[in-house]
């Protein structure tokens, strides 16, 4: 059997775009024959990945892990997308998701570039994704991702049904005192999908846009010009109640806000994140249409 050198593997990878492990296996099967290895990769669908790129991949899973780093708890979460639920629920796809989040943790990655370059058994996360696409013959891609940290990090993972992996993951970072209500806060985040932690976190351009929309709406309704500013203030307050976590009515007791719930503990919320499969693309499309 011919020796499979790194140079040979690199050559085939550059020519095909296939992952390291897939290339090595093909070269081994082809006894070092480059052209035959390329044919094997084509037969197995590895080189078809480029043709799948244009297809929508809005199903999938969210993998997550909480670790200790420098005396704090750090939560990592990453979305791995495929085209169908059928693929998303397979044990192998779940394993790919777990491998990617483990690589993300090991690399302490916080950007898409860092995640894709993180090391895995297949070479890198990018290689793992390529291999997954070849195995399932679907467009598989990296979706949303997040990293948060605090004294404590709590996670709530929601599944569509028992046989499926998590499709929505909520994570909240708190201090020690607020940790006692972290689970309830995560249920709130999962159910009500807030966008910001506090009103101060809402970008000014978002507030300006909402103000303009509401002002134009009330003008169209024929409201007197002098009272429109006050009506708009009320509308912006309602917008905050819908989108700001601490301003939202607590789902288990609407008489109090999430902020008031946390205040009773004497603690505070530090960060939160919510990742729902497929929503990243939907939000990007909405933003694009608004522009």
Overview of this structure, please?
With 291 residues, the chain is an alpha+beta fold. The chain has three domains: 6-44, Helicase, Ruva Protein, domain 3; 59-200 and 244-290, 2-Layer Sandwich (Tetrahydropterin Synthase, Chain A), CATH 3.30.479; 203-242. The protein contains 13 helices and ten strands. The strands form four sheets. Strands 1-2-5 form a three-stranded antiparallel β-sheet. Strand 3 and strand 4 form a beta hairpin. Helix 1 crosses helix 3 (34-43), helix 6 (91-107) packs antiparallel against helix 8 and helix 10 packs across helix 11 (228-243). The relative contact order is 0.12. Residues 84-87 are annotated as: Involved in Mg(2+) ion dislocation from EF-Tu. Belongs to the EF-Ts family.
Could you name the key traits of this structure?
single chain; 291 residues; alpha+beta; Helicase, Ruva Protein, domain 3; Tetrahydropterin Synthase, Chain A; 3 domains; three-stranded antiparallel sheet; disordered C terminus; protein biosynthesis; elongation factor; Transl_elong_EFTs/EF1B_dimer
């Amino acid at each position: 059997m011919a020796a499979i050198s790194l140079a040979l593997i690199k050559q085939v990878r550059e020519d095909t775009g296939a992952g390291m492990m897939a290339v090595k296996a093909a070269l081994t099967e082809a006894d070092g024959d480059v052209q035959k290895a390329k044919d094997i990769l084509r037969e197995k669908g590895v080189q078809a990945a480029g043709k799948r790129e244009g297809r929508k991949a809005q199903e999938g899973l969210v993998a997550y892990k909480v670790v200790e780093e420098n005396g704090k708890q750090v939560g990592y979460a990453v979305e791995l997308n495929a085209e169908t639920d059928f693929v998303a629920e397979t044990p192998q796809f779940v394993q790919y998701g777990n491998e990617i989040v483990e690589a993300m943790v090991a690399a302490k990655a916080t950007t898409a570039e860092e995640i894709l370059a993180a090391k895995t058994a297949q070479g890198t996360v990018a290689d793992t994704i390529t291999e997954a696409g070849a195995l399932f013959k679907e467009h598989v891609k990296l979706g949303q991702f997040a990293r948060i940290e605090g004294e404590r990090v709590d996670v709530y993972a929601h599944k569509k049904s028992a046989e499926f992996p998590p499709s929505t993951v909520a994570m909240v970072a708190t201090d020690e005192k607020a940790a006692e209500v972290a689970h309830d806060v995560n249920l709130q985040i999962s159910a009500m999908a807030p966008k910001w932690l506090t009103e101060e976190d809402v970008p000014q351009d978002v507030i300006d846009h909402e103000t303009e929309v509401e002002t134009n709406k009330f003008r169209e309704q024929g409201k007197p010009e002098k009272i429109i500013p006050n009506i708009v203030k009320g509308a912006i307050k309602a917008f905050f109640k819908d989108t700001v976590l601490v301003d939202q009515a607590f789902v288990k007791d609407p008489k109090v806000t999430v902020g008031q719930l946390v205040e009773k503990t004497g603690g505070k919320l530090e960060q939160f994140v919510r990742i729902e499969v497929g929503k990243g693309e939907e939000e990007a499309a909405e933003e694009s249409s608004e522009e």
